[in-house]
User: Fold this.
Amino acid sequence: MTRRWAVAIGLALVVGLSLVSASVIVPIILLLNLDDRTLNRWSQVGQALQPVGVFFSGVAFIGIAVTLFLQSRDLQNQREELAMTREEQQRSGEIALRQLHTDLVKMAITDPELREVWPPMAPGVAETKKDHYCNLILNLQKVAYEAHTIELAELRGALNYLMGSADMYAFWQRARAARGAVTDGDEAEDFFTAEVDRAFAAADPTMTNPAGKIRKAIGRRVAAWLSGTR
Assistant:
């Protein structure tokens, strides 16, 4: 393939040099061998053909402009592809780090001695297995959203569902301040924290508390009994 390209380039150079030489030699020959009357006629013919030359010059200019435009668009596409590649690599790196975090939390869940290494979520409040498990569940939602596995509406639905758990509600109630202090300034972390806070604020504390559920159930039965006696 390289040899064929070399032959094609060589032929193109030969043809180009031949045309340039002919454009110089032919006018000289005509000037030396033709009389004034014939030269005038040729001059008139050349003037008549000038619009054709202008037309082809315009076509050549348009062709160059189109070529430059296509090259610019190709470069823009290449830059966008490189940006997408860098973003994908960054996302893959973040997912890998979160996987490492997940592995560390799993070790803390299964080994009480390793669990003691983690600082308390709040002064005097030690973390339990459930706390670490709740943390893993929330991190799973964050990774799924950042990997575009779920959309924002699905993320919010999942968080609203999770906040219906008394353990999840209690975990976030204790951990939200400490988590916000650690991740403050990270745009992605701040966004996820805000979404969890939204679900936390929308949750009904009495429904996430077993005692509250019992009180509500008793209240409904008493109200139904009273309405039936009237």
User: Anything to note?
Assistant: The mean pLDDT is 75. The chain is about 85% helix and 0% strand.
